[in-house]
């Protein structure tokens, strides 16, 4: 077999017994790295430490990834302004959290005759979202619902969250127990 030392240097082609003896002499394990190669490649290493480092690397990579969810915001053709603004703020918050947003307008009864109202609401919503998101799937009808999917726009750096302390509360001593 071809043997690689514990410090990464190439030792060369050695018999299996000699490689096992070298690994045992150093108090390490003999691990087969590439079994399909001719001759097979083995390495002298601390296998437990190797597995631990692999798990740590995988954990670190997992910590950095973000799973994108699809959040749905349901609207109606006769939506009032306050409800519209409330749903708009929620959609912008979802997009800032790097989630996709599915806008759904449900038409009932005679509302089906006024699909243009629903389309105008979706166009206004996309305009109002502005820089937070971009249209991924344009508006389309599916039965009695009109849907549109927004995805978050790419950003260079995540915003830093700051918790501000109110100086007025700290100076007045509010929230502290008073001595009586």
Offer a concise description of the structure:
This protein is α/β, with parallel strands linked by helices. It has 2 domains: 2-63, Translation initiation factor 3 (IF-3), N-terminal domain (Ubiquitin-like (UB roll)), CATH 3.10.20; 70-152, Translation Initiation Factor IF3 (2-Layer Sandwich), CATH 3.30.110.
In DSSP terms (H or I, runs of 4 or more residues), the helix count works out at 5
Query: How many strands appear in the DSSP assignment?
Result: 8
| CATH architecture label name of the largest domain | 2-Layer Sandwich
Structural class: alpha/beta
Rounded average pLDDT: 84
**Series of H and E elements:** EEHEEHEHEHEEH
The name of the CATH superfamily of the largest domain reads: Translation initiation factor 3 (IF-3), C-terminal domain
3D architecture notes:
The structure is a single chain. By secondary structure, the protein is of the alpha/beta class. The chain folds into two domains: 2-63, Ubiquitin-like (UB roll) (Roll); 70-152, Translation initiation factor 3 (IF-3), C-terminal domain (Translation Initiation Factor IF3, 2-Layer Sandwich), CATH 3.30.110. It is built from five helices and eight strands. The protein has helices at residues 16-26, 47-64, 81-96, 115-129, 167-172, and strands spanning 2-4, 10-13, 29-34, 41-45, 70-75, 100-106, 133-142, 145-152. The strands form two sheets. It has a four-stranded mixed beta sheet. It is rod-shaped, with a radius of gyration of 31 Å.
């Amino acid at each position: 077999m071809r043997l690689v030392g514990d410090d990464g240097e190439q030792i060369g082609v050695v018999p299996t017994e000699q490689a096992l003896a070298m690994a045992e002499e150093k108090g390490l394990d003999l691990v087969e790295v590439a079994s399909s190669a001719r001759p097979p490649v083995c390495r002298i290493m601390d296998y437990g430490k190797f597995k631990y480092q692999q798990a740590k690397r995988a954990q670190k990579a997992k910590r950095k990834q973000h799973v994108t969810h699809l959040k749905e915001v349901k609207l109606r053709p006769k939506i009032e302004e306050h409800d519209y603004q409330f749903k708009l703020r929620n959609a912008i918050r979802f997009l800032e959290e790097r989630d996709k947003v599915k806008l759904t307008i449900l038409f009932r009864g005679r509302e089906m005759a006024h699909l243009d109202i629903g389309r105008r609401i979706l166009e206004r919503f996309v305009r109002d979202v502005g820089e937070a998101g971009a249209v991924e799937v344009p508006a389309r009808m599916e039965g009695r619902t009109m849907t549109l999917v927004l995805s978050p726009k790419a950003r260079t750096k995540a915003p830093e969250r700051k918790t501000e302390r109110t100086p007025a509360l700290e100076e007045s001593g509010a929230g502290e127990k008073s001595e009586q």
